[in-house]
Design a protein that fits this description.
Elements: E1 2-5, H1 20-28, E2 32-36, H2 47-52, E3 56-58, H3 61-67, E4 70-72, H4 79-82, E5 90-93, H5 101-110, E6 113-116, H6 131-149, E7 158-160, E8 163-165, E9 169-173, H7 177-188, E10 192-196, H8 203-208, E11 212-213, H9 221-224, E12 227-228, E13 231-232, H10 237-250, E14 256-259, H11 274-278, E15 285-288, E16 305-307, E17 313-315, H12 320-323, H13 325-343, H14 358-363, E18 364-367, E19 370-371
Parallel strand pairs: 1-2, 1-4, 2-3, 4-5, 5-6, 9-10, 9-14, 10-11, 14-15, 15-17
Antiparallel strand pairs: 6-18, 7-8, 12-13, 16-17, 18-19
Helix pairs in contact: 1-13, 6-7, 6-13
The structure holds nicotinamide-adenine-dinucleotide (NAD).
Length: about 375
């Protein structure tokens, strides 16, 4: 099959879905690779590097969509990109079918098969294709770097001839994939790191990374933090009050707060209130990784960095993976390459779209002119 990666059209997007290295792997599966000219430039991959990896450079998107059997992309397609698809073609990209009904309908009408990377089931076997986790990992790391670049002091404490410097205190709210990456980055930079999650079972992971888990004095904690399929559910009002009271106590002492708390299918819970921001020291930094879902911090402005009257910087960027485009493209392209490996069991360039396979079935949102989202519950745990 011919696998082609177009240039991303979303404003400010620097990632690309195929790297020279992933193309070499795709070719070992018996596929041919194409890329639109310049598609990898912002991620640090030149046309020359693709050419050396045996990739054919195509002059524009129209030609790419016309030639490729399988189009691989990062961002969900725009209408004009969907219009370039047709029966017999496959698109593999982030798609968010639950939030993009019209797009899903358009994909169905096109007759193309769409594999949504955000719908890959989060089961052990599919970890190598879990693009949500690879991007969340980068976002967590980058959130700390972003905080550091807006913070006027060291993370680590130092005793120097010019004076003693105290370590920074960092609080990470939400210890999922992004939160754990933020915790790891923060502790490795030498900050005193605290973390909180409604799922108390993550405490051990947090502590093993050298951070301190913030416990609440709340009897129902384990019940309220109960998982639903490994994810958080909405907290009771009493639990939420206990959580906010603890955060209020911590706020004046924290230099950096990284919020990552999300509940699938809902707006982000508001956990860092105006009075908490107002009680923080001037020069403190909040990075709100939940900005796209409304933000965990009351004062976050999506896609912007603001400084409050009391001198607290609040970063609400939503493009952290794109800000590390070389790394994120490398991991994302590897996730896609693994998906293609599962779709090419004979390693002979022939795609077998096995709708009996939980992972392929779970991620396929249109197939044979039908909408196949939502998928049935996976059989494998
Ligand atoms: P997410 O992005 O949906 O949420 C981020 C974190 O916010 C979660 O840890 C959640 O518990 C927390 N949170 C929600 N409400 C909160 C609140 N009020 N206060 C504090 N924290 C709050 O989660 P995610 O990073 O995508 O992963 C969540 C779960 O999925 C974890 O259990 C993770 O281990 C699991 N997971 C499994 C796999 C796999 O098996 N392949 C892959 C990735 C993630």
């Amino acid at each position: 099959m011919k696998i082609g990666a177009p240039r991303e059209t979303h404003k400010g997007e620097s990632r690309v879905a195929m790297t020279p290295k992933s193309a070499q792997e795709l070719r070992k599966l018996g596929h041919e690779c194409l890329i639109e000219t310049g598609a990898g430039t912002k991620a640090g991959f030149t046309d020359e590097a693709y050419r050396e990896a045996g990739v054919t450079i195509v002059e524009d998107a129209a030609k790419l969509y016309e030639t490729a059997d399988i189009v691989v992309k990062v961002r969900e397609p725009k209408d004009e990109e969907i219009e370039r698809l047709s029966k017999g073609k496959t698109l593999i990209s982030f798609f968010y079918p639950g939030q993009n009904e019209a797009l899903l309908e358009a994909a169905k009408t096109s007759g193309a098969t769409v594999i949504a990377m955000d719908m890959v089931p989060r089961i052990s076997r599919a970890q190598k294709m879990d693009a949500l986790s690879s991007m969340a990992n980068i976002a967590g790391y980058r959130a700390v770097i972003e905080a550091g670049s807006n913070f006027g002091r060291f993370f680590t404490g130092q005793v120097t001839a010019a004076g003693k410097v105290p370590p920074a205190k960092v609080l990470v709210v939400g210890a999922g994939v992004a939160g754990l990456a933020a915790i790891g980055t923060s502790t490795s930079l030498g900050a005193i790191t605290y973390a909180f999650d409604v799922r108390p079972e993550v405490a051990e992971q947090v502590e093993s990374m050298g951070a301190e888990f913030v416990y609440l004095d709340f009897a129902e904690e384990t019940k309220d933090g109960a998982e639903s399929g490994g994810y958080a559910s909405v907290s009771s009002p009493e639990f939420r009050e206990a959580q906010l009271a603890k955060f209020r106590e911590l706020a004046p002492d924290m230099d950096i707060v990284i919020t990552t708390a999300l509940i699938p299918g809902r707006e982000a819970p508001e956990l860092w209130t105006r009075d908490m921001v107002e009680s923080m020291k001037p020069g403190s930094v909040i990075v709100d990784l939940a900005a796209e879902k409304g933000g965990n911090c009351k004062l976050t402005v999506m896609d912007e960095k603001i400084v409050t009257d009391n001198g607290v910087t609040i970063v609400g960027y939503t493009d952290f993976p794109s800000r590390m485009a070389t790394q994120s493209s490398t991991l994302y392209a590897t996730n896609i390459r693994h998906m293609m490996a599962d779709l090419t069991p004979g390693k002979d360039g022939t795609v077998v779209h096995d709708m009996e396979d939980d992972v392929i079935r779970g991620a396929t949102v249109t197939h044979d002119g039908e909408i196949t989202y939502p998928p049935p519950k996976p059989k494998v745990k």
